[in-house]
């Protein structure tokens, strides 16, 4: 018997009973929540087994009627397609949430004001502080094109990548990580590893 709100949500998702807005919210959560992905996958497998058992029970006495046998095949295929679609979605979801990758790779850049860009250095120190305060959007706002093209471009790009990761902005993080990894700079190796994890998916 299902007792929890989360279990009911999962069943309503699998059974396609959610309103479009609720389903869209659930899917966004599913893309970044590894534990929820596991729960949906397990429930999908259980649902498939239940469908097979119900099919056998419901059509056990109908094997002699060709029209009913045809309906049986159609019903079975449709039910299996729904379950397999859910399992494929979960199996093809991203393995790592960007915020999880941030926790693995983030290191605070060393910003030396001796390069002559004291104002830019101060901006980067502030952006770095915003990340510590969980204010990724404020950090992103400071990392303007002028800052990114300054003498501190490597540190600025790294902070921007980390801010996108913290903000769970996968697409912008991928673009930034790819740009950094192409350069022979301080953070090229880390950016390449981050890009790999951003693209990695569950496959089965």
Q: If you had to describe this structure to a student in words, what would you say it looks like?
A:
This protein is an all-alpha fold and 204 residues long. It is built from 11 helices and no strands.
What fraction, in percent, of the residue positions are helical? over 70%
Number of continuous helical runs: 11
| Number of separate strands | 0
In percent terms, what proportion of residues is strand? under 5%
Task: Evaluate the radius of gyration.
Answer: 24 Å
Separation of termini?
Answer: 29 Å
Major beta sheet summary: none
Decide which structural class fits the backbone: mainly alpha
Q: Roughly what is the average pLDDT, rounded to an integer?
A: 79
Shape: elongated
Uncertain runs: none
Order of helices and strands: HHHHHHHHHHH
Topology:
Layout: H1 5-14, H2 20-32, H3 34-58, H4 66-91, H5 98-105, H6 118-132, H7 136-142, H8 145-148, H9 153-166, H10 170-181, H11 188-199
């Amino acid at each position: 018997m299902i007792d929890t709100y989360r279990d009911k949500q999962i069943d309503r998702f699998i059974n396609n009973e959610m309103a479009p807005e609720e389903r869209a919210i659930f899917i966004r959560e599913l893309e970044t929540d590894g534990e929820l992905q596991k729960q949906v996958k397990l429930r999908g497998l259980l649902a498939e087994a239940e469908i097979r058992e119900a099919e056998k029970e419901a059509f056990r006495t109908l094997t002699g009627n060709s029209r009913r046998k045809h309906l049986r095949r159609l019903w079975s295929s449709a039910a299996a397609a729904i379950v397999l679609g859910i399992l494929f979605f979960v199996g093809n979801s991203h393995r790592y949430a960007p915020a999880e990758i941030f926790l693995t790779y983030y290191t605070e850049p060393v910003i030396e004001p001796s390069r002559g860009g004291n104002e830019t250095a101060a901006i980067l120190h502030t952006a770095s502080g915003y990340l510590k305060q969980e204010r990724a959007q404020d950090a992103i706002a400071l990392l303007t094109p002028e800052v990114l093209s300054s003498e501190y471009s490597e540190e600025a790009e790294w902070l921007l990548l980390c801010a996108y990761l913290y903000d769970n902005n996968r697409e912008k993080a991928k673009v930034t990580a790819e740009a950094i990894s192409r350069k022979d700079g301080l953070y090229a190796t880390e950016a390449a590893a981050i890009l790999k994890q951003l693209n990695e998916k569950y496959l089965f």
